[in-house]
Amino acid sequence: MNRVKITLSYNGSAFMGSQQQPTTTNTVIGTLTIALKRLKIASVPKGSGRTDRGVHATHQVMHLDLPYYWTDLRRLTDMLNMQLPSSVRIRRIEFVSHEFHARYSARKRVYRYLLKEGIGNPFEDNFVTFVPTLNRELIADAIGAFAGDHNFELFKKSGNDMDHYVRRIYRAYAYSHQGYFILVFEGNGFLRSQIRLMVGFLLRISEGKATKADLIEQLSCIKRHSTDIAAHNGLYLTRINYKS
What are the strands, taking DSSP E only, across the chain? Predict the structure, then answer.
């Protein structure tokens, strides 16, 4: 068997999440597994991490062990894309060593969250979170507090299967682009729904319902000020970095 690294994109609104589930095949890995079986490939892909229902990816990474007779990866990419629905596309398949693991070899994960001020519309509602008003200055000032090593116990959803909650955020910043307000989080890993809880807190600050000082208190596990969780549709996994 040869191990390959698969880079793919998907529209999360079409799936019940990325990971396999016992009650449905309508997940990214479930859909990809069905397409692989049609090509007589029995291996199940392993992802770099889970994305929840409705969360998108522009550069998700998975690994897979291929039978030796599959040597033409360009042809495999094309054939898989023919089998897959338009909501998911293979961007690239490449050979890697057997030591490579999509999840455990990852060093950095980058997510973006797309916000837009105003009333939603049917062409963007699945891909952007609309809010009535945005205080961009307050958000841009507060988001930097997430950078560094923090215990994110108060920024996780119940049911998280991790046994420790310290994560390193390398960068957290916001910028405006063509009418959108984009929040960027780069870290070594994230807990279940952590980013949506972080964005939820920033939106409370934007609304004047919390302050940056409150955010710092919650980051320090002193006091929980917010359990608001931002909608899933604005969140994108945009890059996985495997270099140390």
Answer: 2-10, 46-47, 56-66, 88-95, 108-117, 129-131, 148-151, 166-177, 180-187, 235-241
**What digits encode the pLDDT tens for the residues 19-62?**
888 888 889 999 999 999 999 999 999 999 889 999 999 999 99
Whether 106 contacts 168, CB under 8 Å:
no
Active site residue 72: no
Give span(s): CATH 3.30.70.660, the chain: 108-241
pLDDT digit string (tens) for 199-222? 999 999 999 999 999 999 999 999
Write the CATH number of the domain with boundaries 108-241.
3.30.70.660
CA-derived radius of gyration, the chain? 19
Q: Is 23 exposed, middle or buried (CB count within 10 Å of its CB: 0-12, 13-18, 19+)?
A: exposed
Q: Tell which phi-psi region holds residue 55, choosing left (phi > 0), alpha (psi between -120 and 50) or beta.
A: beta
Q: Which fold has domain 2-95?
A: Alpha-Beta Plaits (3.30.70)
- Please determine, for residue 171, whether its predicted confidence score (pLDDT) is greater than 70: yes
**CB neighbourhood size of 199 (10 A):** 24
